[in-house]
């Protein structure tokens, strides 16, 4: 009888125990799922735009990206996206390099610009025309210089590094993700870049092409760019990072 009673108790208790065990196992999964970091987007939130605008507006003079980053407390990538959005929307004005860095101030229209804007057509019905990729030109104009495809990417990365003193390689790779090329990192540590270039030169490795970061870290930019992937970089640089690039015929 005792044996039968014990078996009967186990039949009643075990299913409930299994349910409790399964609940305990499932609970951490729910907690973990709730802490998944949201995927980064290339769009800046209105809150970030307001933070950057207010900081620049209340500053004594032109400020650098680093100044804005410190003043707003925003991460570097979010700061960059906000700045470039505000430059595109003519809220901020980008000034030429000063001491190797770009500076930003509040955009103020001159009387001539106000008059010109007033004469523009006011019909805003319908969607805005979609931006299209720059054609497969042989040369591109960027920051008052002309470049071929590979050298354009090198110039873009160099300009970005100049605008972000103290930047780390992981942050450069975040600003210029691997997906832009498809096979290689746009920027790689010198050791990895040299290793990938043993049989065929795939990175810019001349002394004047290597980029030096703080902490004696050296990085190289991929040189393998053609009609199949250069527009990825150009679209990203103009639409996300806010750079101005023009194609040159001929």
Give the gist of this structure:
By secondary structure, this protein is an alpha+beta fold.
Topology:
Blueprint: H1 2-34, H2 46-57, H3 65-72, H4 76-88, E1 92-98, E2 101-106, H5 111-118, E3 139-142, E4 145-147, H6 149-163, H7 169-175, E5 187-189, H8 190-196, E6 211-213, E7 217-221, H9 230-239, E8 246-248
Antiparallel strand pairs: 1-2, 3-4, 3-8, 5-7, 6-7
Helix pairs in contact: 2-4, 3-4
Biggest sheet, open or closed, and with what strands and sense? 3 strands, antiparallel
Q: Could you tell me the strand content as a percent range? A: 5-15%
Q: Residue-averaged pLDDT, rounded?
A: 76
Q: Low-confidence spans: pLDDT under 50, at least 5 residues?
A: 10-40, 121-132
Number of strands: 8
The residue fraction in helices comes out at: 40-55%
> What distance lies between the first and last C-alpha atoms, to the nearest angstrom?
99 Å
* Lateral arrangement of strands in the main beta sheet: 4-3-8
Shape: globular
Q: What oligomeric state best describes the polypeptide chains here? A: single chain
Query: What structural class is derived from the secondary structure elements?
Result: alpha+beta
Number of helices: 9
Task: Please trace the helix and strand order, writing H or E for each element.
Answer: HHHHEEHEEHHEHEEHE
Radius of gyration: 27 Å
């Amino acid at each position: 009888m005792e044996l039968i009673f014990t078996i009967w108790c186990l039949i009643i208790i075990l299913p409930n125990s299994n349910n409790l065990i399964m609940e305990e196992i499932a609970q951490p999964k729910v907690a973990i799922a709730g802490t998944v970091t949201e995927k980064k987007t290339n769009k800046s939130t209105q809150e970030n735009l307001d933070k950057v605008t207010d900081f620049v507006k209340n500053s004594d003079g032109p400020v650098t990206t680093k100044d804005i980053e410190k003043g707003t407390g925003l991460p570097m990538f979010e700061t960059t996206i906000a700045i470039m959005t505000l430059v595109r929307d003519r809220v901020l004005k980008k000034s030429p390099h000063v001491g190797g860095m770009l500076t930003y101030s509040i955009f103020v229209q001159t009387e001539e610009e106000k008059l010109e804007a007033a004469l523009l057509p006011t019909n805003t019905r319908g969607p805005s025309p979609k931006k299209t990729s720059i054609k497969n030109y042989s040369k591109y104009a960027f920051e008052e210089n002309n470049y071929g495809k590979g050298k354009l990417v090198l110039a873009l990365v160099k300009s970005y590094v100049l605008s972000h003193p103290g930047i780390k390689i992981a942050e450069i790779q975040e600003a210029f993700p691997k997906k832009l090329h498809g096979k290689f990192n746009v920027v790689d540590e010198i050791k990895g870049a040299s290793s990938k270039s043993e049989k065929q030169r795939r990175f810019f490795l001349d002394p004047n092409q290597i980029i030096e970061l703080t902490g004696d870290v050296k990085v190289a930019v991929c040189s393998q760019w053609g009609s199949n992937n250069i527009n990825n970089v150009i679209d990203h640089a103009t639409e996300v990072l806010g750079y101005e690039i023009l194609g040159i015929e001929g």
